Amino acid sequence: MSLQGIIFVDILSVGFLLLILNLVRTKKLNISYAVIWFLSVLGLMVIISVPSLLTLLPRLMGAVFPASALSLLAFVLIFLTLIFFSVQLSAISTRQIELAQAIAIKGLLAQEEITGPEKAE
Amino acid sequence: MNRSVLIVIPAYNEEETIAAVILKLQRIVPQYDRVIVNDGSTDNTGKVVDELGERQLILPCNLGYGLALQTGLKYGLIQGYDIIVSMDADGQHQPEDVSNLVNALLTSNADMVIGSRFCEGQAYRTPVSRRMGQLFFSYLTSLFLGRRIYDTSSGFKALRAAACEVVVNGIFMDFHIETIVQMSLLNLNIIEFPITVLERTSGRSMHSVASVFQYPLKTILLTIAVLMDVLLIRRIR
Lengths: 121, 237
Description:
Helix content of chain A is 85%, strand content 0%. Chain A is mostly helical and 121 residues long. Helix content of chain B is 46%, strand content 14%.
């Protein structure tokens, strides 16, 4: 990649890193997700900024063109990120279910404490 | 043998049928306790249940059949019931069968009795697509368990507290084949008992068109996950 291209990508990446930091600062992005994005952008910056890495990586991966190696890496990263998000969503969903069930059970138990359990004979 | 029995009835928008179900239960099996799990109903289900003086667990949002039932089981365990019976709110299950299921549980060494629509040559009519699915899952139980369970998706079941613990703590969706496989692999004994099921007269079935495709896939995945879970636990132990 030309020097001009590297500078362009680095500026974009720094902007993206600042955006992530600002989202964390304003409590719009959870720190766990921020770490993933931060590492991804930093990794991309390093690979693109160090020319030897850009030639070494396709060779290690058996790719002919650096661009296809980078695309594959990006695809793997996006895939992993999506799985991570699914896990996080599932955890939130489980907590929401447990919370809803606890509200229902505690509500009835509290009501029974006031009125007494109407157990059948 | 004096055992405390709780009937758990998950209900979602069942204002047209729930009153008849409760009144029949009050008349036919007054010796058993009941709790209605109001699964975030948007109609008058909660009001009808209140007017009949029944206990209800009010879920703040709709969780779906399996999780509503799980809420009832959790409540039953907290309250220390020995036997919990699950029953649908749509009026298809007959209150007369509650005693039959409980007796079948007490007189056998079973941990769970499934009220079955298909065992002993019964001919309950269902749409072809659903019947094919039921047959498929029924044969799947022979593959996993070495014996066939004819009605894997029945909502009418009686369980001992030990079996409820498995449902409450296990991997769980609709309390169907995944639970049957899990219980069997944990050496809990499951039997079937023939019941009479009426056609649904009002309200809407919980099975949508999308569920025709989703349900089998989800169930198969979950059953494999349950199988893995139980086998891994056994290996660790």
